[in-house]
Amino acid sequence: MKMNETDLRLALRYAGVKDPDHSPFQLMLQAMESELEAAIASKSTWRVFQIVKQADQIRLEPGGLILPGKMASTMLADCDQVILAAGTLGHGFDRQSSLFQAQNDPAKALLFDAAGSALIERVLDELEENLHALPEFQNLYFTDRFSCGYGDLPIALQKAIGQLLNLPLRCGITVLDSYMMAPTKSITALIGVSQNPQPARIRGCGYCSLNKSCTYRKKGTTCHGE
Amino acid sequence: MANNGFKRKTAPLFLDGAMGTMIQRANLPAVPLPEYYNLEQPEAITAIHKAYIEAGADVVYANTFGASPHKYENEKYAYDQIIEAGIANAKKAAQKTDVKVALDLGPLGVLMEPMGSTSFEEAYEEFARMVEVGVKAGADLIVIETMTDLYEAKAALRAAKEHSNLPVLVTMTFEANGRTFTGTPVEAAALTLEANGADAIGINCSLGPDQLLPLLERLCQVTNLPVAAKPNAGLPDPFTGHYHLPDDQFAKLSKQFMDAGVSILGGCCGTTPATIRALHEAVQADQREEEKGERKAKSEKFESEAAALDFGSSLKKPRFDAISSSLQVLDLDGIRVVGERMNPTGKKRLQAALLAGDLDLCARLALEQKEAGADLLDVNVGMPGVDEVTMLPGVVRKIQSVCDLPLLLDSSNPAALEAALRVVNGKAAINSVNGKQESLDAILPLAAKYGAPVVALCLDEAGLPDTAEKRIEIAKKIADEAAKYGIDRSQLWFDCLSLTISAQQDQARETLKAITWLKENWNARTILGVSNISFGLPARAMMNQTFLTAAMQAGLNFAIINPSLTGLMDAVASFKAISGEDEGLRGYVARFADRPDLKANANVPVQTKSADQPSTSQNMDLQTAIYKGLETQAANAAKELLAAGKGELDLTEEQLIPALDLVGKDYEQGKLYLPSLLQAASAAQAVFDVLKESIAAKGEKQASKGTIVLATVQGDIHDIGKNIVKTLLENYGYTVVDLGKDVAPEAVLQVVEQTGAPLVGLSALMTTTLPSMEKTIELLHTLDNPPKIMVGGAVVTPDAAQAMGADYYCKDAREDIKVADEVFGSFKEKGDA
Questions:
Q1: Per-residue pLDDT tens over the stretch B107-146
Q2: Which of A98, A111, A174 lies closest to B401 in CB terms?
Q3: pLDDT at position A150, please?
Q4: Which of A95, A106, A136 sits opposite B239 (nearest CB)?
Q5: Residue of B nearest to A109 (CA)
Q6: Which of A25, A90, A178 minimises the CB distance to B769?
Q7: DSSP per-residue codes, B671-683
Q8: Domains of chain A
């Protein structure tokens, strides 16, 4: 995968560089292009589930997964389908990252890691764009993409999503008992599908479970830009 | 094994189709795990097996795919009950038929080292327990399937072979690019599984038959074993979850596999008895055509394929003579460079690191040699005070966590070799056996058991032979003895020994003569450590280079050298151009074009590492170099200061630490960003390497400000933050015992008890791993004299740290230094008082 302008700026921000435009590290990141290309074997998968609303709970069929809490019921209030999606940069990325660390190059490791964080978001962005273009979703509307751990949507759902999407075989993602995923640059997400236009609800810190401890917020910035 | 159940001369062997798909279709009541049905719906499971048998399956897989002790630890049924019932259901269906019942072993659902923390032995134990139950329950064969991690597949295979006498089929799952998710190419899987005793190998799941064909063709080209294919019925529809490929198309595509050499056919996800029936019928229809003589050519190919399988216990000449790591295959035709630097003999710095159990240096040595052009790495840890039986496998694990070169395991201790052969991921080679009976009896069984090529030293009880003839005589003896173990001569890499020319001038000629003979008469592989030749002589480099060239001309395959020595690598590159191995001279041109030392006709050493660093004046002072994060310049400045008589300790306290302090201060004030801080840390680390080298050379011990244990807590696999802390602490002169990531609380406790470390640093990145941080702290607090504990990581807050009972919260890596200085400073004061 190649970094575009936005990825680059985002990566520098993740690496703690405040003025991405005037930084020698921009060059250092650009010089990593071939390593990123060689290390990343991105992979994504998705599946559509029907939403069954029961009292104030949301159930997905087939599979019967319950999505408890306010986050899911708000986000999916107006939806009858939800897309479960996942993406990863693959184990090769983690391997290259530990290689930089073994070579006594923590600065490179840090920048590389930051680039990975930016690129995995793009894997999901691109997947979402492609989905939107499918004939099955013509004239339908997507909610913002959201993930386990946002708001009150339990991170523990990660395991069940891993099973429903058969992540070990479809993407090579293992969900650990701690709900952390390996490879480290992996994401699972939910996208509601509705007959009606959907408001932009998230992309704000209020929904993030880190909003009390976030280091970006402490410094007066955010992880996603301004 | 005389008849391993996979050999069919005239027809392919048919496996069954999917179990999961059939269970879904049966609409059974929901259960927590699919193997529950073995006990709760035995009739339904038996009926599925029966349907496959009626459709023509010769082998049915019992419903035991996920029945591991770990997965069933807290379930209603124990894993052994599940396996016993699974085998019984299948056997019931196979009653009164010739159909064989397979114990089916799938992935454990854990993450193996180095990505995760499950060790080879842990995985092996899980599989071994399942195999034992399966054998007792009466399985006819063992199938290991859907493996995406070669290391796990090897653990399962070894467990199956070492806990049963049953034939074992191993099938792995690949992506369309021909690699598993962990990066293993088809060929590396084939080499490794064949070496470890698989009776048949193959590919299942993930892809449909059309995408599997090119991968199966590659697999068939590199193995002598029967090959199996169990594709999915295409890909699942994301809207319905159903697999789309119609049975007749599946059958049509799958039977093409036989042309590639596949002799075992079946189906995976989405296939049903109807699929297997269609496959069976399509193959039979083809065979009827063949009998009519219309497809004779293909039939002959299949016959010869089958005949090739029948050599059973005779010598195993590999179809593809190569070795591999889990990621990279090394074809052995041509001249190959064996990196020799991972050997403590005469290297004080490495000796000190091994004695201290610090394996980071081993990882770096491996990477440096790879960068310098080594094709495989010799790994030797033999020295007084080091237990090779634990150290050799430890170093192997460390190296293969970062370096993808195949390994040559080098020890005179058979137990150490075996320990390393077990944990190596890929197909490694052994260094070495010799003509002494004791050595032959100890090493050859290992080579046979692990399918490892072995270096054969041409010496014996009588010592070093002084003629080529005597060397060849010993080579013959070793080859004869190896044949008794089923080891083909191609798997012996003969070392005709290079002796010191200044002591025995005629011996160089004898060595070359022996290499020539072995090449011409046996087309044997030969290997040679080159540098012995020049001991005690001036211009050793010249002598070594000339001798190496002569040996290559005589037919040498493997040169054991230091790949950082430019002259030797130049000779190899030039020879490859002359021999034709370097087609179109691309390698030669790439190596020599634009090389500065050749251009100016000067004798300047070639710099590789500093390529990405801006050039600056050569005499930059140490503090500036560190501040600017310039590794090479900082190291050079340190060397100059040492040469001028500066002591190591003074240099640290007067230059290194003040420079780092300045960097730290500017970072805190926002003048420098994190990457700059890290570059300065790398430069300081380079200076430390210089100091360590200098201290080791004097035979002194490195002074340390104190020992700190670091770990990323259990369940957490992000360790970049912890590694940054480690680098900084080392910069400041602390000894860091780094336990890595996903570390169990008990492991932290154990190491703290062993080392008596007064300070422990713990890192966590997710809210879900904070409880294991808390648990680790609790456990450490059970000690009579608990260490101070500092914690950090994205989700840790000062309040959380306090609530967990940590002594310090560190908002960033700089903070850890302050904490360490405080903790050890107060220690020192107490000590002084």
A1: 999 999 998 889 999 999 999 999 999 999 999 999 999 9
A2: A98
A3: 84
A4: A136
A5: B720
A6: A178
A7: SS-HHHHHHHHHH
A8: 5-218 (3.40.109.40)
Partner residue opposite B181 with nearest CB, options A99, A172, A178: A172
Task: Provide the residue count of chain A.
Answer: 226
What was the pLDDT predicted at B290?
75
The C-alpha atoms of residue B664 and residue B724 are separated, in whole angstroms, by 13
Distance CA B130, CA B115 (A): 24
What is the DSSP-derived secondary structure letter of residue B72? T
Residues in chain B: 833
Say what the ipTM of the complex is: 0.90
Nearest chain B residue to A158 by CA distance is B768
Predicted pLDDT at B795: 82
Identify the helix (H) or strand (E) that includes residue B276.
helix B273-291
- Count other Cβ atoms within 10 Å, centred on residue B594: 9
Q: List, for residues B745-795, the tens digit of each pLDDT value.
A: 999 999 999 999 999 999 998 888 899 999 999 999 999 999 999 999 888
- Given an 8 Å threshold on Cβ–Cβ distance, is B768 in contact with A155? yes
Q: What is the DSSP letter of B585?
A: G
Tens-digit pLDDT profile for residues B11-65: 799 999 999 999 999 999 989 999 999 999 999 999 999 999 999 999 999 999 9
Which residues numbered 90-119 in A keep a CB inside 8 Å of some CB on B?
A: 90-92, 94-95, 97-99, 101-107, 109-111, 113
Question: Residue B166 to residues B128, B201, B291, B808: CA-CA distances in angstroms?
Answer: 13, 15, 34, 57
**Which residue numbers in chain A have pLDDT < 70?**
203-226
- pLDDT of A37: 94
Six token digits for residue A150 = 């946002």
Residue of B nearest to A97 (CA): B720
Assess B632–A contact: CB distance below 8 Å, yes or no. no
Cβ-Cβ contacts under 8 Å between A and B: the total is 150
Mutate to test the interface with B, among A130, A131, A213 (most CBs of B within 10 A): A213
Contact between A16 and B675 using a beta-carbon 8 Å cutoff: yes
Closest residue, chain B, to A104 (C-alpha): B682
Cα–Cα distance measured from residue B630 to residue B636, given in angstroms and rounded to the nearest whole number: 10
Q: What is residue A209's predicted lDDT score, i.e. its pLDDT?
A: 61
Sign of CA dihedral B482, B488, B489, B495: negative
pLDDT of residue B522 exceeding 50, the answer is yes
The interface residues of chain B toward chain A in range 234-263, judged by CB-CB distance below 8 A, are: 236, 238-239, 241
SS (H, E, C) chain A: CCCCHHHHHHHHHHCCCCCHHHCHHHHHHHCCHHHHHHHCCCEEEEEEEEEEEECCEEEEECCCEEECCHHHHHHCCCEEEEEEEEEECCHHHHHHHHHHHHCCCHHHHHHHHHHHHHHHHHHHHHHHHHHHCCHHHCCCEECCCECCCCCCCCCCHHHHHHHHCCHHHHCCCEECCCCCEECCCEEEEEEEEECCCCCCCCCCHHHCCCCCCCHHHHCCCECCEC
Q: Which of A187, A101, A105, A184 is nearest to B720 (CA)?
A: A101
B295 pLDDT more than 50: no
Tokens 């062993």 correspond to B754
CB contact under 8 A, A107 and B678: yes
Pick the closest to residue B321 from B422, B451, B154 (CA basis): B451
pLDDT at B287: 81
Contact at CB, A107 and B676, closer than 8 angstroms: yes
pLDDT, one tens digit per residue, over B635-671 is 999 999 999 999 988 998 899 989 999 998 998 888 8
* Residues B228, B254 contacting (CB under 8 angstroms): no
